[in-house]
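Help needed: design a sequence for this.
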């Protein structure tokens, strides 16, 4: 009988380094946590930029309205500031600039109750964020009085409307939001 040769296994060598399973799990957990932190940071930055953009947009809009509407009533240099016409003789064109249905009719009713003559009611071509009173010619005093009566923060000379569009009115009350 041939003698069987038995060999005892020696150390097993591998080319791949042995990886500890616990290190691999920690590495995976670290990568997942880092990815979540990055997503949270991106969400917070998006929220912050949106808030900042709204704030800047509001400031720019306010500056543009002030530039277009002109200076505040105290600083305006147009007309004398003394009313020539009585309220009953002052024609007012009431325009809805805020997009709310019926706002011009409600504004016209308020103006009538104050004793003014409402020449007409209509919708403005563009949206307006603030209520303002515009006047033609020498009727700045009447415009200041109407602005005080309806609590309008802006009084400015009329621009962009022809006398035919005014329908005989001296003032335009443009209702904003």
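Sure. Designed sequence:
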């Amino acid at each position: 009988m041939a003698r069987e040769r038995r060999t005892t296994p020696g150390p097993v060598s591998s080319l791949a380094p042995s990886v500890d399973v616990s290190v691999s799990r920690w590495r995976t957990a670290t990568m997942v946590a880092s990815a979540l932190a990055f997503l949270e940071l991106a969400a917070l930055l998006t929220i912050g930029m949106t808030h900042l953009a709204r704030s800047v947009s509001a400031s720019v809009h306010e500056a543009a309205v002030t530039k277009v509407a002109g200076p505040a009533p105290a600083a305006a240099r147009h007309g004398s500031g003394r009313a020539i016409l009585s309220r009953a003789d002052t024609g007012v064109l009431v325009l809805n600039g805020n997009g709310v249905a019926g706002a011009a009719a409600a504004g016209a009713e308020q103006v009538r109750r104050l004793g003014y003559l409402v020449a007409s009611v209509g919708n403005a071509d563009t949206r307006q964020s603030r209520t303002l009173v515009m006047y033609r010619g020498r009727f700045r005093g009447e415009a200041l009085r109407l602005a005080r009566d309806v609590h309008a923060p802006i009084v400015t000379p009329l621009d962009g409307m022809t006398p035919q569009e005014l329908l005989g009115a001296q003032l335009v009350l443009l209702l904003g939001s």
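Residues 21-69 form the longest helix (49 residues).
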